[in-house]
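User: I'm new to structure prediction. If I give you an amino acid sequence, what do you actually give back? Let's try with this one:
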Amino acid sequence: FTLSAVDGFSQKHQQYDLTEQVQGYRDLLRLEISISKEHRDKLFQLLSDIPKRERFHYWEYPILSEGHID
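Assistant: Good question. You get back a string of structure tokens that encode the predicted 3D arrangement of the chain. For your 70 residues, that looks like this:
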């Protein structure tokens, strides 16, 4: 997996928090993880069980290939 800090921009003005209203963006974390379909629902359940968390936004797309170039 990969975890990185990103600058987030809300699509709707009513979703802006105070920091985003002042800075123009808000600090977010982006988690990229490659899992099989059969594990997806379990991952979503584990993430939804995290107490006092922010809302998660996710993208799901197929990985056509994967590997390393040395």
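You can read the tokens as a compact description of the fold. Here is one thing that stands out. The beta strands are 2-8, 26-32.
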